[in-house]
Specification:
This protein is of the alpha+beta class. The chain has two domains: 165 residues, no CATH class; 165 residues, Galactose-binding domain-like (Jelly Rolls, Sandwich), CATH 2.60.120. Strands 4, 6, 7, 9, 12 and 14 form a six-stranded antiparallel sheet that branches. Strands 5-8-13-10-11 form a five-stranded antiparallel sheet, with helices on one face. It has a three-stranded mixed sheet with strand order 1-3-2, with helices on one face. A hairpin with a 6-residue loop joins strand 10 and strand 11. The longest helix is centred in the N-terminal third of the chain and has 16 residues. 38% of the residues are buried. Bound molecules: zinc ion (ZN). The site of zinc ion has 7 residues, from helix 3.
Amino acid sequence: MNIKTLQFLGILVLPILFLASCGDDDDVTPTPPNNPDAIEAKYREYVDRFVTEGVDRGFDVDISELTVVEGIAPQFQEFCGYGYSNYNSTGRPRVEISDVAFCWDDRNDIEKEALMFHELGHAILARQHKETTYSNTLPTSMMCSEACAGANLFFVYNTFTPGLRKYYIDELFDPLVDPPSWLSKTDTTQFYTDDFEDDNSEWTFEAVGDDQGAFTANRYDTTMTGDIALSITSDGSLGFESFAYWLVELDAPDIPEGAELKVTAIMDLEQVTGDGLSLVARTDVLGGDDLQISGFETTQGSISFNGTEQDRQVSVIMPYFPNRADKLSVFFLLGGEINGKVYCKDILVEVME
Ligand SMILES: [Zn+2]
């Protein structure tokens, strides 16, 4: 299994494992803090950044009474962070961050920022959760909880979506801010299309964690209706950690930040059991030592595929294209626990700006 695949597997399973990230409830009696006035050193940088962002927008951010500590009250341990605007009726704001590595130590800088800013939104700005979404599925606010369970609070923006970051921080300090201009799309361009009828050699197949031949692939398969298609068959004998996919990698330097990318596949299914089929779009930034993923969207967990069907049309949407994408990868993927056969007959990639 190569590094890319490991990364892919990692990024793929993350949204399933993720816990809801916080809450806001002042009528609780958590364990009293050891040091009520402290902002622990590892969090200071993110608190300072929050103050700077507020001041830059004309807000006088008062953190004089703020406490930020590691460790979550026992009754809220399913959360990564918790923000109190009036902790234990003391009138003091307080943020608690989980000591679970998944919630902080394993997070990159921008993910830590998103979690801390959200909790400070509760604690310093006394904001409640806001669960609305825009028509492109993005949450209206980084004060989302349920509404960002799919997109995930940690990934509500990233290093490669500075316009998205600016909007969410604007909205954090001013909930009445105008909707962002990048919501309005007027032009649709066909970026890539393939019906697999002729040459499909740019598509590659890979099976991960399959040492027994549970997956089989056919590059020029024929469906019941006579269409040529890429296919994957799985005997269902493998677990969730195994999967197989067809992949195409496209150059994508000309798609602007904030564009909406839509990948649509037309598929036939034959006696598919379980919901392990997904369509994935991912953008990568090349050149560094590590693979950097600037965008990732999957239908996993949001669309159900099973049984026998013809001409099932499925789309995965990247609502806000990153400012760097040296490569755009489209995966059509089947999990090892699935029994059945899937044909991909057509793929269309569209860009809306
Ligand atoms: Zn919250």
